[in-house]
């Protein structure tokens, strides 16, 4: 992990297209501004993890439905 120290108004670049700017520092809270291509999804980590969990659950449910339909289909033959 790379750890950098930045002050309000300073930024870091990730590749040529992503800029992260320190907008404000208040106590233990840091507000960041992110400039990135519009097609790039940007999420807070906790939301990203929730979405992954939801997607995994949806895939598992879909696979269970497909297995059920295959079993039902083969029993009819």
Give the number of DSSP strands: 3
Mean pLDDT: 89
> What is the CA-CA span between the terminal residues?
57 Å
Regions with little confidence, pLDDT below 50 for 5+ residues: none
The amount of beta strand, in percent, is 25-35%
What helical percentage do the residues reach?
Answer: 40-55%
Overall morphology: elongated
Oligomer class: single chain
Order of secondary-structure elements: EEEH
Query: How do the strands of the widest beta sheet line up side by side?
Result: 1-2-3
Structural class: alpha+beta
Alpha-carbon Rg, integer = 22 Å
Question: Helix count, per DSSP?
Answer: 1
Q: How would you characterize the largest beta sheet?
A: 3 strands, antiparallel
Briefly summarize what is shown.
By secondary structure, this protein is α+β, with helices and mostly antiparallel strands. It contains one helix and three strands; from the N terminus they run βββα.
SSE blueprint and pairings:
Blueprint: E1 11-14, E2 18-26, E3 29-35, H1 45-76
Antiparallel strand pairs: 1-2, 2-3
General description of the model:
The protein has one helix at residues 45-76; strands at 11-14, 18-26, 29-35. With 77 residues, it is α+β, with helices and mostly antiparallel strands. The protein has a 3-stranded antiparallel β-sheet, with no helix packed on it. The longest helix has 32 residues, at 45-76. The model has no long low-confidence stretch (mean pLDDT 89).
Key terms:
alpha+beta; 1 helix; 77 residues
């Amino acid at each position: 992990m790379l750890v950098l120290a930045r002050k309000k108004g300073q930024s870091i670049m990730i590749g040529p297209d992503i800029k992260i700017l320190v907008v404000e520092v208040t106590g233990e809270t840091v507000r960041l501004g992110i400039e990135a291509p519009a097609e790039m999804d940007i999420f807070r980590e906790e939301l990203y993890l929730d979405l992954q969990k939801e997607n995994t659950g949806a895939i598992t449910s879909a696979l269970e439905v497909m297995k059920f339909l295959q079993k039902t289909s083969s029993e009819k033959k």
